Amino acid sequence: MQHNTHGEMQTIKKAISWKLLILSYLFVEGSCQDFGGGQTQFICTSVPKDMDICTATLQNSMPGEDLKTTVMQLRETVLQQKETIMNQKETIRELTSKLTRCEGQSAPEPGPGGRRKETGIKNTMGDVSRGPSDTLAQLSQTLQSLKQRLENLEQFSRNNNSVQANSLKDLLQSKIDDLEKQVLSRVNSIEDGKPGLRNETEQRGRVESTLTSLHQRITDLEKGQKENRPLDKFQLTFPLRTNYMYAKVKKSLPEMYAFTVCMWLKSNASPGVGTPFSYAVPGQANELVLIEWGNNPMEILINDKVAKLPFIINDGKWHHICVTWTTRDGVWEAFQDGVMRGSGENLAPYHPIKPQGVLILGQEQDTLGGGFDATQAFVGDLANFHIWDRKLSIGEIYNLATCSSKAQIGNVFSWLESSIDIYGGASKWTFEACRQLN
To answer: Buried b vs exposed e over 362-397: b needs ≥16 C-beta within 10 Å?
Structure first.
């Protein structure tokens, strides 16, 4: 950059020197007579050393057009070079500013389909930013989630007249009230700028440790509900955008030359609902992924090839979505609430879905079974997740979405509590899709 600027400055200096040289002996202003024009004229011409200037002017009534053109060209060159230098100075300032920002933060660049590339550095706390305000926001969300779970447990205990459940509920409610007081105290510390902020890391650790304990105790209490519901009448809830809440399917998928995947989703997360599911195999983390990340539309990925799906689901309501695909010509179709919303082809054509992988609900995998990124986590509720190794018909999908007939279950994966393990505070609740529609 400096070498180019030096060359341009030399060009400008030469241009200015020529201009001054020409002007110094070619531009002559009137000590001569006014030749009929009534106005002073500038005449550009060469004059012999021993000749009178006025005489030379009379002998050359036509100005030197070639010299005049040269002067104009030089003038234009000077202006262009000046503009170039100004632009380059602005570019240098902009690049310097960007470099400074890059040195202060090293966020990974987006990969295919809007996903971030693996950098080897993960946020173990789950949040993208862990400043005081961000931490308080997450704690508030966690407390709200725990409250909701307690309300559901209270309803369960009323319906089943469980004395033990009521006792535990009261104890947990007391714990949550204490946590809310701690959060309020931290808010006051932040607003008042008190020295208590110096111990934020230690305080955050204590609060999160208590939250983890509460999650475990509520989970133990929720186990009592399983004995009173069918194994397929449940939903998974992912209340926070973290990199540690997820569910893992206990078995892998077989090799598939076609598939249909359907599920019920509810979310109001923004921007993007995250990753409802991801399937990774050795050597390919994006073998089969459904993701809505950032401001991008929802996408289906097969072997890292991407198709954009016309789904709009982040309105806080339950929606039934299905995606079908066949390896022949890579033909795909997308259904929302029983209606086809889009279709296409050439999505990973003639590439069968590989077996012996890991199927995760709620997170996008950067490595086999892990490498989760909090910014791509699913936030919301998921239920009735099924996979078939064939393309369902339009009528079959409509019946699934509207509960018009006896529900089919996936022959590759069917929605059963015994088929998945949950981690990191994700929770299970009683859910019945057809009741949601009524």
So the answer is: bbbbbebeebbbbbbbbbbbbbbbbbbbebbeeebb
Residue 44's φ and ψ, nearest 5 degrees, are -105, 110
C-alpha Rg value of the chain to the nearest Å: 36
375, 241: one domain: yes
User: Cis omega before residue 63 (within 30°)?
Assistant: no
Locate tokens 């133990």: which residue? 220
- Look at residues 226, 243, 276 and tell me which one is the last residue of a structural domain: 226
Written as six digits, the tokens of 325 are 């695909």
Residue with structure tokens 């475990």? 216
CATH number at residue 274: 2.60.120.200
Work out the percent of the chain whose per-residue pLDDT is above 90: 41
Band of residue 11 on the pLDDT scale cut at 50, 70, 90: low
Q: Report pLDDT for 24.
A: 45
pLDDT at 333 over 90: yes
Residue with tokens 């240098």: 92
Interval 331-342 mean pLDDT: 97
- Please compute, for residue 49, the number of CA atoms within 13 A of its CA located in the half-sphere on the CB side: 0
Structural domain that includes position 39: 2-87
Separation of CA 98 from chain center:
20
Same domain, 316 and 288: yes
238 and 381 fall within a common domain: yes
Query: Which pLDDT tens digit goes with each residue over 262-316?
Result: 999 999 998 899 999 999 999 999 999 999 998 899 999 999 999 999 999 999 9
